Amino acid sequence: MKFYWILFSTIFLLSIFTPTESLFSGTNFQDFVDSFVDASKFKFEGILSLNDSTISRIWSYFKSKYGRVYASIDEEKQRLRVFKDHLKYVLQSNLEKLRTFELELNEYSDWTIAEFNSFKKGLLPTNDLQQRNFDDDNGNNSNDEDSVRRSLKKLYRHHYNLRRLKRNLIHRRHHKKYDDKRGFRDWLLDLLVPNSNNNNNSKNNAQATSSFDWRSKNVVSSVKDQQKCGCCYAFATAAVLESLYAMKTKSNTVTEFSMQQITDCSSNGNNGCNGGNFGPSIRYLLGQGSKIATLQSYPYVGTKQTCKTSGINQINLGNIQFGAITEGNEKAMADALVTYGPLFIGLDADSQLFMFYKTGILNINNCPNRRQDMDHAMVVVGYGYDSVLKIPYWIIKNSWAQKWGENGYVRLAKDKGNMCGISSMAYYGKLT
């Protein structure tokens, strides 16, 4: 009896001094919810089929798992109402048969959408880099000779494009009749010899199933958490530079850079935890002689602080060259990804689908893709093809911790009309 009393006391004391979330770390919250919800009944009867007792148990588990303590009874009632709405949304979404992805309730389940947008995003869309190389207008190393050289280069390119267009028009007129005959010939050949075009089909299939992932080349750092600070732009900028520096130095390990430095110090165009973009972040670093602090010497704290200029270890990146990918051109984006490295992108993530994404390929109908709609910065590290769903996808690194999504990553449908603006605000870079 004494032994059991000692054992009980030990367990009780451990539960007091152990962080609440760690007690539930091995249990997925959505799995707990699903164990109480009859999905087929819910499908026909809606949220009312979840009685108060069931909701109360789910709510209590959520508060315990994530350590929620509210200031008043009124606040808890308001949070519970928000939680119920999210619960209904996630359950309904996961019951749709044609979904290519799955959602889950998570630590944001008692946040309003407005709170989530404020804390977990932070991209301010600008046009300062659109369709230009960044080193053409960064204000450094610019003189009259460079200006004339760039002007002559643009003029030559303009005349070259005009000549090429003229040649193409002549070529098309010359070959129009031949193309018509060739079309009839191919149709007749296919009729007489079935599968005669298999070579072309094989080429298309090979292209559709192609994949590329910078993570496999050990140049992508671990997923981080921006916490309650809208500085996703700083995380994305640091992540791109980390990969470029690892590629440049051919290092076996990735040197992690300080997103806190970008958040604190790049005030000309960025606004700390209230948003920013790629251009102002790079301009700040160029103004520092292309140097950036290591994460170890300038750690992230989740809020904007006074800019540190001493007592930090800074890495000289070398000459930073950046450019913007043609808006809406996913093919050019894929080429730039393979050629240069991971890409800084903006996305319209203003959806509960992003908020509660768990796994699969996000394929969102009517997702806005205008440049001005972009509200969250992330990093594209690769692309692939799902042979089961028969959908190509982008592999995107996020900054909402590894607990979110697929170990901190999201897959988004590729070549689907610029899904959610995946190529509306995309930038590549190079360190020389």
UniProtKB/TrEMBL annotation:
GO BP annotations listed: proteolysis
Domain Cathepsin propeptide inhibitor: 59-116
GO terms assigned for molecular function: cysteine-type peptidase activity
Span of domain Peptidase C1A papain C-terminal: 208-430
Keyword Protein transport applies: no
Keywords associated with the record: Disulfide bond, Hydrolase, Protease, Signal, Thiol protease, Zymogen
InterPro entries associated with the record: Papain-like_cys_pep_sf, Pept_asp_AS, Pept_cys_AS, Pept_his_AS, Peptidase_C1A, Peptidase_C1A_C, Peptidase_C1A_papain-like, Prot_inhib_I29
Origin superkingdom: Eukaryota
PROSITE patterns linked: THIOL_PROTEASE_ASN (PS00640), THIOL_PROTEASE_CYS (PS00139), THIOL_PROTEASE_HIS (PS00639)
tRNA processing keyword on record: no
Pfam family membership, one: Inhibitor_I29
Signal sequence interval, chain numbering: 1-22
UniProt family annotation: Belongs to the peptidase C1 family.
Protein name: Uncharacterized protein
Biological classification of the source: Eukaryota, Metazoa, Spiralia, Gnathifera, Rotifera
